[in-house]
Amino acid sequence: xxxxxxxxxxxxxxxxxxxxxxxxxxxxxxxxxxxxxxxxxxxxxxxxxxxxxxxxxxxxxxxxxxxxxxxxxxxxxxxxxxxxxxxxxxxxxxxxxxxxxxxxxxxxxxxxxxxxxxxxxxxxxx
Length: 126
Hints:
The chain is about 90% helix and about 0% strand. The protein is mainly α.
């Protein structure tokens, strides 16, 4: 079953997306209908009142889902920032350690060579 879903997603991504949207819409409609019927029978309200109650319940569920998603994304963002800053610190330390043992004249010659080579490459390409 998993292989069939993966093949569908790879071979026909647009159709797989449409299928996913249809499934989500049907689940939404089923949830709305179920809440509508339960509230109508339990509280014996009119159809309009039931629809208003269901609307606000669904809106509350949607907003709670957005809240949980925002908290999850904030945690993921914090982990990514920490990983990137650690990686940047390691790379900075490595580059500083590479340059330290060289004398100033060797550093200048190397930078001039890279600049001259880049300029020649730019003249050749452009």
